[in-house]
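note to self — DONT lose this again. spent like an hour looking for the file last time. sequence + predicted structure for the chain T wanted, 153 res
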Amino acid sequence: MKIIDLEPGDPRLESELLPVLRELRPHLTPELFRDVYENGHPQGLRFSAAYADEDGEGADGGCVGVAGWRIVINTSSLKKLYVDDLVTRETARSTGVGHALIAHLEAHARAAGCYELNLDSGTHRTGAHRFYLRERFDIVAFHFTRELKPLGQ
């Protein structure tokens, strides 16, 4: 497996990474994804893509996993690598892709001097929760959200 970090403007973002990311974030259109990355990159947003080996079992060498992430500095964690998105193509699940992406992100976090690697996961994603627990993540908080309507609506 090969994991690479992709910069804004890389044509592989839309042609290879986005189809996998849409398995987790189906609302993303190419235009919206481009806008998010162009505006998020100056704020630290990065994307990593995992590619299957050409000789991997049932693999065609295509993108099989995606991680969207950023380094965050705050008062609670001091410095952490926060994972916005972590998804393995449905046909490649349970093949080590998620584990490899987490190891890749942990290497980035350690190199940056982070104290934590963390993420949020929707309450309905119980399969993902089992995976995170196997990967030695702890459940340490509740995440609360208040939806805000645009002004004038």
